[in-house]
Amino acid sequence: IAGITQAPTSQILAAGRRMTLRCTQDMRHNAMYWYRQDLGLGLRLIHYSNTAGTTGKGEVPDGYSVSRANTDDFPLTLASAVPSQTSVYFCASSEGGSYNEQFFGPGTRLTVL
Amino acid sequence: GQNIDQPTEMTATEGAIVQINCTYQTSGFNGLFWYQQHAGEAPTFLSYNVLDGLEEKGRFSSFLSRSKGYSYLLLKELQMKDSASYLCAVRDSNYQLIWGAGTKLIIKP
């Protein structure tokens, strides 16, 4: 089934721990994005990648890192989680960068205690 | 700074029409998107406007006025399944999407 998958669906994490959120798409889209969504706020861009091998910082990149080794995968890593990183994380992709609509994965609900 | 404003919540009746407004102040403008997001789910694309005017797609229409920094999403013949949050997003001069906080639409029978 074409689309975007994210793993895990949800996670409770102790502060200070390292965590990688996984994102895989099979639509061969060039661009991929990581957002966080918090109650009362709009989606905020963490990092993005316009094509495999390149990444860029979004609005709220601190405390997060990404890599884009191939077209399909775009993992997001929290090196040392803090409670303020409690959020719902969405991965998205689009064909040809931001020129086109973005398709979203189902999200990962992360709680940092 | 960049800002997208939408009402926090709206209520409408099944079968009626509702208009959700979005005003924006961004560094540059390269298009405006509307997405629908049901509770606990991912956003899904509804419409895109880059030129002034009305874009119609079935029961949903979206309007844009670039000079006023204003858009609206019009939903006709409301159904219970239209209960969701509606997100307005503007593509800025860097071609990144700036998102509003969303409007939660409650449909009553």
Structure description:
Chain A has strands at residues 4-7, 10-13, 19-25, 31-37, 44-49, 56-57, 64-66, 76-78, 87-94, 103-104, 108-112. Chain A starts with a strand and ends with a strand. By secondary structure, chain A is mainly β. In chain A, 0% of the residues lie in helices and 45% in strands. In chain A, a hairpin with a 6-residue loop joins strand 5 (44-49) and strand 6. In chain A, strands 2, 4, 5, 6, 9, 10 and 11 form a 7-stranded mixed sheet that branches. By secondary structure, chain B is mainly β. Chain B has strands at 3-5, 9-13, 18-25, 32-37, 44-49, 53-57, 60-65, 70-75, 84-91, 97-99, 103-108. In chain B, strands 2, 4, 5, 9, 10 and 11 form a 6-stranded mixed sheet that branches. A 5-stranded antiparallel sheet of chain B has the order 1-3-8-7-6, with no helix packed on it. In chain B, strand 6 and strand 7 form a beta hairpin. The mean pLDDT of chain B is 95. At the A-B interface, strand 5 and strand 10 of A face strand 5, strand 9 and strand 10 of B.
